[in-house]
Design a protein that fits this description.
Blueprint (H helix, E strand, L loop, with lengths): L17 E7 L1 E5 L15 E5 L10 H5 L14 E5 L1 E4 L5 E3 L1 E9 L12 E5 L14 E5 L20 E7 L3 E2 L14 E2 L2 E3 L3 E3 L12 E2 L2 E9 L14 E3 L10 E5 L4 H11 L13 H4 L4 H6 L6 E2 L2 E3 L35 E2 L3 E5 L4 E5 L24 E5 L18 H10 L2 H5 L8 E2 L1
Antiparallel strand pairs: 1-7, 2-3, 3-4, 4-18, 5-6, 5-17, 7-16, 8-18, 9-10, 10-16, 11-12, 11-15, 13-14, 19-21, 20-25, 22-23, 22-24
InterPro entries: DUF1996
Protein name: DUF1996 domain-containing protein
Organism: Naematelia encephala
């Protein structure tokens, strides 16, 4: 499947001011967020991309560089990127995660400086909704790669339906003069570039930085492109078809995080040799510093090294009865503050995966904690319904993987007994109301 470049309003034809990371695979869909919830289970599920070493707490620059691989086509980029996962809501108020492919743009306009090692930041909002908030300036959502807005498409705004939904978002790219790596809110140490439009206005893909944040870093635009399966029928008139992992159905609570993890020398040389006027776009082989570690096969072979919460995010035989965590449906008519749960369950423990879900149509191989099978032959009895079903999706033992290189990946793995023990000490049963004889995929 070929993904279209969709930043129509910000990428001008022939403008050589950027490069694009394509063939960028999802490492996991899990409640992990080392910036907002360090050491804990995150409040909602995220789509994790980039370096294979994803910590429960933010990793140091040195630790990030020890990652075995990156799910990015450029192996020198071991950064961690993640964004709120998108779910499909069925008429019976059940949920199914959508599968996706990813693209990341790096714009190198003007006098761009490399990010400092250790930098981390967030963009967007997750617990409140405000279209005018400075944090939401970078949100770009579209139906079928058309007009970009801050809002999820639904059956009223798009009665004709969508077959693909692009969740795009810019990260702020102007830093403080002191080179601050973080701030208490993980946003205010950064700012948006500005452009003149009769007055100075925030411009996520601008060139000029405000005096408060004078250092211009690369502008990152991340695109998570989600696709509907054949059994997911668009419902004209329904405003709550698509739901973010935090329950939001408007799109205003879409957000993303970033932990910088590039090989510093590679990014410096990329800016010097392939900056404004010399950006290669998708033709990464034309930029020598990037071409040196470019490998589609290495990106496809990359596997998550760490652990995941022992709970349900994917289902084999039926969708989830509720979103993972405390995330009731948060519709447009409700207050713009994340709703509370009347009975919030305790967090599940972390556990190493024992099985992985592979989908060849969308190029996914996601680690899961699976309780049902106790030998290899059992896995053939389960055909995931998501991602096109039989012929596209399969389950395999996490510990038995052999990569296309013939090597074994650097991973942690659990036995089924360990996963079951973790499940018993956690809260996934109360959280997700699991049924269907426990026939489920667990992320």
């Amino acid at each position: 499947m070929v993904l279209s470049g969709t930043i129509f309003t910000d990428v001008q034809a022939g403008t050589q001011d950027h490069f694009i990371l394509t063939n960028l695979w999802t490492l996991a869909i899990a409640r992990v967020d080392s910036i907002i919830s360090p050491g804990k289970v995150s409040g909602h599920a995220h789509n994790l991309i980039g370096g294979s070493l994803v910590g429960r707490t933010p990793l140091s620059p040195g630790q990030l560089q020890t990652a075995a691989c990156s799910s990015c086509i450029i192996g020198a980029d071991k950064s961690n990127y993640w964004a709120a996962q998108l779910f499909w809501r069925y008429p019976d108020d059940t949920y199914e995660p959508l599968l996706n492919q990813n693209r990341i743009y790096y714009f190198l306009k003007g006098d761009t400086k490399p990010f400092p090692p250790g930098l981390r930041m967030i963009t967007g909002l997750s617990q409140t909704r405000n279209a005018s908030a400075v944090e939401t300036t970078g949100v770009r959502i579209s139906c079928n790669h058309e007009l970009q807005t801050k809002y999820l498409p639904n059956g009223k705004t798009h009665p004709e339906g969508c077959t693909s939904i692009s969740l795009g978002i810019y990260y702020p790219s102007c830093g403080l003069a002191n080179g601050a790596l973080d701030s208490p809110d993980h946003f205010s140490h950064m700012a948006w570039p500005i452009s003149w439009n009769g007055s100075w206005v925030d411009d996520p893909n601008g060139v000029t930085c405000p005096s408060s944040h004078p250092i211009k870093y690369p502008t990152i635009f991340m695109e998570n492109n989600y696709y509907l399966s054949g059994h997911q029928t668009w419902r004209s008139g329904d405003e709550n078809i698509l739901v973010l992992a935090n329950g939001d159905t408007t799109g205003l609570a879409f957000h993303a995080d970033y932990v910088y993890g590039w090989d510093q020398d590679v990014l410096i040389k990329t800016i010097e040799q392939c900056g404004h006027g010399h950006g290669p776009g998708e033709a990464l082989t034309e930029c020598a510093p990037l071409a040196a570690s470019m490998s589609i096969s290495n990106a496809w072979d990359c596997r998550l090294e760490g652990q995941i919460p022992d709970e349900g995010v994917l289902h084999i035989l039926a969708p989830l009865h509720s979103l993972p965590g405390c995330n009731p449906l948060w519709t447009a008519e409700m207050p713009d503050v994340h709703p509370k749960c009347s009975n919030s369950p305790p967090d599940p423990p972390f556990v190493a995966p024992n099985v992985y879900f592979e989908n060849l149509k969308y190029r996914e191989h996601l680690p899961i904690a699976f309780t049902l099978a106790n030998n290899a032959s059992d896995l053939t009895n389960y055909t995931p319904s998501i991602g096109g079903g039989r012929g596209f999706s399969s389950l395999y033992w996490w510990a038995d993987q052999v990569l296309s290189s013939g090597k074994k990946p650097k991973i942690q793995s659990s036995t089924t007994e360990q996963v079951i023990a973790g499940r018993g000490s956690g809260s996934s049963r109360e959280c997700c109301q699991l049924d269907h004889n426990e026939s489920q995929l667990i992320l």
